[in-house]
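Inputs:
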Amino acid sequence: MMDKPLIQVENLNVEFALGRTWLGKPPMLRAVNDVSLDIMPGQFFGLVGESGSGKTTLGRAILRAVPISSGKITFDDAEVCYDVGSLLKKDLKNYRKLAQLIFQDPYAALSPRMTVRDIIAEPLEVMGLTQTREETDERVRDIAAKCRLNLEHLRRFPHAFSGGQRQRISIARSLVCNPDFVVADESVAALDVSIQADILNLLQSLQDEMGLTFLFISHDLSVVAHICDHVAVMYLGTLVESAPTRKLFANPSHPYTKALLSAIPSLDPNERTKAQKLEGEIPSPVNPPPGCKFHTRCPVAEARCRTEVPEWRELSDGHSVACHFAEKV
Amino acid sequence: MSLLTVENLTLQFDTDEGRITAVENVSFAINAGEVLGLVGESGSGKSVTAKSLMQLNPENSVYSPESNIQLELESGTVDVLSLKKSQEMVVVRGGAISMIFQEPMASFAPAITIGGQMVEQLLIHTSMSKKEAAALSVEMLERVGINEAAKRFNQYAFELSGGMRQRAMIAMALSTKPKLLIADEPTTALDVTIQAQVLDLMKDLVGEFGMAILFITHDLGVIAQVADRVAVMYLGGIVESGPVAEVLRSPSHPYTKGLINALPKLDAIDEPLTPIPGDIPSPLERPPGCVFHTRCPEVIADRCNATVPTRTEVSKGHDASCFALEAKGKAA
């Protein structure tokens, strides 16, 4: 087990300009605000948050699919060490091979005009990873088998497949170039529960088999609880809490994490509690509240929270939180 | 007498690829003031079933002659499927039955103010004046917890957040005081913290207005929180139905059991997830016999793939359609 993180994010900021102005600077939307995290090799790292929390932007920044405004992202797999923000041509191309993305919607992610074989083979051809057609076919068949796709399906078009099968095709396409690191962005959100369980199990077995490291982005805490070893919670562009899964669920220390957990509808009809529901809605990221961004909805907020940004501090080994009153929560 | 009685509802669609069965032999009833949860995965026919209660399905839909939907109103019994003209349908659509849709952005007209839409439907369904309708609309917006209701009344759908839009949708659906509210995945597009708020609101309103709700969702957790009874649908048929606590605690149909096992649970993080094997068959290739037999772990050879199982009563008010259950009943 290596002790160096595969992905190290330090004080990352991602900003988008909203429109253009003639004079001065246009208003900025800060989607990711001063985020730092380490993803260890072989980890299944979960990133949770509601819509607009910046989780997708963070995932894409790590893949360099959106420009970084400030901060540093380091990728280090013992063979190569990249400063992701400043990668150029050849290195960037190589990084694209090492870090891949699985999309949310398996209906939109696959071209309807290509056969499954061509869809899976495309990354190999684009990146020039194989020399001959035989070699390509070999790689495609290999990954298809790993993703439990039927080999005769390779000749068909995506419309012939159900959501679960499509997601397996989409996963095969992302993994065919043998990456180290995969961002799975809401990869099971569009699937039915009976299929969702199957895809989660598949991701887990692929991780073991291929030695992958995952950043698993999801809004569903129960899914994350099942599949991830470490979970980070985002709210309005900032990390509010990060801990090993067990610790986080046993001992949530940020009021937002706590509220998220209690908002999940329980399967037990006797537990129809109204305990700790959050008031209000997530504020606009263009105009985030000062101080702690969560203070407008926080049940324990005090005067201090309205002015002073809480420090990101470690509570116990691997468990960090950004809240003035974490001990009380 | 139940408020709504659906008997042997079978609905097919005429398509280029042939006649597709979307709903087959579905029967259920809803009493006044009751919340019935209709749960199922995509393609199980839950939305289509709900839409047929108001004949909102597209023109190519074909109802079987045995299908019967009856609505018990003060003015008498209405046979919904016999209504042909849209003028006659007004009694049902937006009158006795209102509907909340999944995507609140898509269900409001973008170029008419929220208030304009709320007033319009009140003018159609009640004898109110424009002024009274506007006053009631603002009052309803306040009831569902929208701040500055008078200001929101004059705004457009795009100016509201997702949670607020869904609240406005609920306010609009309830302002005509329907007997039955159909809520089709009303919280699916919302974040969990907002979902919790909307579910609480709906629970409060049922108590206050005393209407019945047909609550459609794919989320068993949501069902556990809001429903009194639940009906589980798979590929166009109801496979199990009963009081919500009973069905969730002691599910009888292998599909219901499978659904519950496949669900990640927070209090059992270490237990492995058990998916239901295989995929949901395409409605074009509906399996013969029991529609679930292709994925069922308790399948009985030569029986399940040949004959359609009938309802077996498990306990009072709780029944499931499964041969394995029948066999167990006989053995006992």
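The mean pLDDT of chain B is 89. Flag for discussion at group meeting.
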